[in-house]
Design a protein that fits this description.
196 residues, mainly beta, four-stranded antiparallel sheet, 14 strands, globular, disordered C terminus
């Protein structure tokens, strides 16, 4: 793929039918099916002359994290995967419907789903979610907070002898400074926290 050496590629996204890359100066180029427009890379015009920081693509839709920490999406929207509060497909960019959005990364992307991480580390997803491990399938047309939760367990002779559940809520930081979890970790593994 030919590109401008004065504006080098810094990020690449691939899908079964399309490919895109972002350059150092925030330009977005795509080719193939889906968001692409043929067999050679073409410049994709971003909303309001913004620059791209991160992106996700599928054969049906794409989302781009912009330099003002907002996310814009376009394409198919039958499951709400554009995050604009509707299920109307869009050929032009729409902003993800989230007040005070301050996204710093796109975390995950699926055929009908997109997720973003905000500036305090909270994860929000929109579109088709669930369906794995027996969980119900849901459709969210606006970003929904995803509870980040995990559990550490200590097993001795096949029996669980202790566990520690850690979870977060929107807008809070996970603080492990008051926990001593070294007894829960496998032998040879350590954990340290700086209090935040």
């Amino acid at each position: 793929v030919a590109y401008n050496t004065n504006d080098p590629v810094i990020d690449v996204a691939l899908d079964s039918y399309s490919s895109c890359y972002i350059t150092q100066y925030g330009n977005l180029h795509c080719w193939g099916g889906g968001p692409g427009t043929g067999t050679t890379p073409s410049n994709i015009t971003l909303p309001s002359s913004r620059s791209a920081i991160d992106m996700t693509i599928s054969s049906e839709h794409m989302c781009v994290l912009l330099d003002n920490n907002s996310i814009a999406c376009r394409g198919a929207n039958s499951a709400g995967e554009l995050g604009d509060g509707t299920t109307t497909s869009r050929s032009s960019w729409v902003y993800v419907n989230m007040p005070n959005q301050n996204f710093v990364a796109l975390a995950s992307h699926g055929y009908m789903r997109t997720c973003g991480i905000d500036n305090v580390g909270d994860i929000y997803c929109w579109g088709k979610t669930g369906g794995g491990s027996g969980s119900p399938v849901t459709y969210q047309s606006s970003p929904t907070f995803i509870n980040t939760e995990f559990e550490l367990s200590r097993v001795y002779e096949g029996q669980t002898v202790g566990s520690l559940k850690i979870s977060s809520s929107p807008g809070t930081e996970l603080n492990l400074s008051n926990f001593n979890i070294s007894g829960y970790l496998p032998q040879g593994m350590s954990f340290s926290s700086n209090g935040t």
